[in-house]
Amino acid sequence: MTTVCDQCEWKTDNRSHTQITDDELTKELVTKGELRATEERLRGEIKSTEEKLRGEIKATEGKLRGEIKATEERLMRAIHKWSADTIKWMFIFWIGQIAALTAIIKLMLKWR
Predict the structure, then answer these.
(1) How confident is the model at residue 1 (pLDDT cuts 50, 70, 90)?
(2) DSSP state at residue 104
(3) Rounded to whole angstroms, how far apart are CA atoms 34 and 57?
């Protein structure tokens, strides 16, 4: 049965630290060394993955900026077209109003 030592909080098999064999100690040191090696390998993988992701993010950001710019240009063309059409129809309406007002004034002057 494995317990935890009160002095150092290491797991022991109901034996004191002096009773742990050299093989067990070597095995523990090898395991710690393997853990360190694995940790370093994982850190390297994380770093390379992070670099790849940063590159992908920059590429995606560039694409999005291009799409936003293209959309903005299309929108500006549509606004300019709409503005020109609106001004054209405002001018036609204004001419129609003047013609109607002129006709009403002529009729009023005739009936007088």
Answers:
(1) very low
(2) H
(3) 34
3-state secondary structure string, the chain?
CCEECCCCCCEECCCCHHHCCHHHHHHHHHHHHHHHHHHHHHHHHHHHHHHHHHHHHHHHHHHHHHHHHHHHHHHHHHHHHHHHHHHHHHHHHHHHHHHHHHHHHHHHHHHC
Q: Where in the chain are the domains? A: 3-86
Q: Indicate the residue type of 81.
A: K
Q: Are 26 and 18 in contact (CB under 8 A)?
A: no
Q: In the numeric block, which tokens belong to residue 53?
A: 């992701």
